[in-house]
Amino acid sequence: MVDYGHPLRFGSFITPSATAPQRVVDLAVRSEEVGLDLVTFQDHPYQPAFLDTWTLLSWVAARTERIHLSGNVLNLPLRIPSVLASSAASLDLLSGGRVELGLGAGGFWDAIAAMGVPKLTPGESVSALSEAIDVIRGRWDAADRSVLRAGGDLHRVDGAKRGPAPAHAIPIWVGARGPRMLRLIGTKGDGWLPSLPWLQPGDLARGQAIIDGAAQAAGRDPREVVRLLNIDADTGADELVALALEDGISTFILPTDDTAALERFATEVVPAVREQVGAVRAERGTTAGRARGAVALAKRRPGIEYDGLPAALAETAVEPGDQGYARYTSSYLRGGAPGLILRPRTVEEVQEAVRFAGRHRHLPLGIFSAGHGLSGRSLNRDGLVVDVGTLRSIEVLDAAAGLVRIEPGALWVEVAEALEPLGLAITSGDYGGVGVGGLATAGGVGWFAREHGLTIDRIRAVEVVLADGSFVRATATEHPDLFWAMRGAGANFGVAVAFEFEAARVGTIAFAQLAFDVADTAAFLEGWGAAMEAADRSVTGEIIIGRGGRSAQAMLVVDHDDPDTVLEGLQPFAAIAPLVDSSVALTSYAGLMRAMVSDAPQQGRGEPRSHSGNVPHLTPAVSRALAALIDSGSSYFFSLRALGGAVADVPAAATAFAGRDANFTVAAFGSPDTEFDARWRELLPVLDGMYLSFESDTGPEVVARAFPPAHLARLRALKATYDPAALFRDNFFIAPEEREESAVA
User: What pTM did the predictor assign?
Assistant: First the structure.
């Protein structure tokens, strides 16, 4: 009797009939609607009566939102492994991490050979599959900067480039019965996928024993291999329960092209199996979850209850020894090495993740939506990271009112593209690859700041998972104190799982880039400040000055589609200093955000030095102080973003973000162990507040600069109410107000 403790999953196995293609897709969609976890299709490219399986998988991925997809199994001899790796990774990225890779060595060799592929012996087929797995995994390992040399005589790459990396660690399942193939599964596969109608009595037990023995001989835990089964159409719940508890099967796939049979399986059989297996596992004390091998186990960090993860979180969690871990070792500027990454897929799983973090109060905790934040606080070393990137839906609630619901994992470029056809836009940061969650809880200084305010000024509701795992919806009338705090200090109060925004009406805009020859940095800054404060609110922008000054690049948006009006708005800026280059283009907001996205992976390492400060006006004294920092060469990147206008229309007390009287916000980057920090400290007397997301320093004095005394006192009181044990303390910690009856240690 064996039960590997893997989470139960249920799927469908649909015939990819070319004579009724829409029915095939409808059955796949129905599989998702009735709650199945997986939809699969056989792959016989030589069969003219069948649709091409990979094309079908791609089409079904576009028609569904949640369900996972796989070939059952893909015909490896007719699919080049290096290309298949790219195809699988690409579809995984496009589908949000829903691709599984089922592989077969080829069963009908006469038909395969007729397609122009050399016929292999059974032994060669095993070798070919083994080599293919190495090639595929090597292509997916984009974190390895070396060229890829993998495979052998039958499938080989020599000097190929790696990537793209898939969205999640795609498991490789193998459909097989022979002893050599079973040993291969135990050595390097992630799953065994046989078909019950093809098995003889005792085959399951013999197969499990071979796989387990091969896994142990390779230094693996047999639980690393998931056991799947294509069942008979009439297999009942009791038989499935026995297969789960006695034969170790955890994924059951129903072959059917009948909608009624599919629905009956999902609504009657599946719940019964889940209930019975769950009851027996609870009685036995079976720990469900995904096992790791010896190498992965050695990389686990002390103090983390890895094996105590709820099953749903364990299924998608990433540990230091897992494929995909490299994604969490770099943010835009800062490096990290977390001990465990939780990747919840639903609000309920976010609640489970927060409760798990609460049981690990001694560890650092990062909340990760896209990982771009300049402060890098979404990552840590040896702690927990909750990645909400899977929660990324964008839903228009009321187009006429501009009301939109957006989840935190969506990127701002995706938001802009979704709203563009409706003539809507939400002001956000200046980079399209930023995740919604981090920016919408900090402030949001973007291309429409002077016209439409900060991103937080467009929020009408926030859905939050609090430190105790409870769910709250905060608005101006529901939990208004939490609603106030989430807009500017949200990282201290919970995990935002959705926002409702009131988008603005935006059409064609102008984007201008101006390059200046700067002879006098202070005079240039003073002139820029005067021009921006005098400009119409439809004009917003920033300047970037490199090490030592001498040149500056300006980027400006004019929310207007009339060329003469645009040029009139830009003229005062063009007159500040001699122009070296200039360009102006009419575009859409989505087009601008698309231009501000890089496909390259983030490369941040170590601990960055970045500082932020707000400036009411660029007076001569302030301009000279800023120029001293720039001209010293200690900052390799200096930016000045425009505020004012609509930002100042909002009363300072209306949100936790308090810098409403500033017309500009400064961000500067420098290198550690240089004079940069000392030069920045000389600036503090002329600065008034800061934008926390651009600041790498931490500590009470930094928080005190970010929030005026009245704001900070209110935030501390609210912290004592919503997070008294200070679970959320690793992103510019606001200490809870101490109370006699419940002082925080």
Answer: 0.80
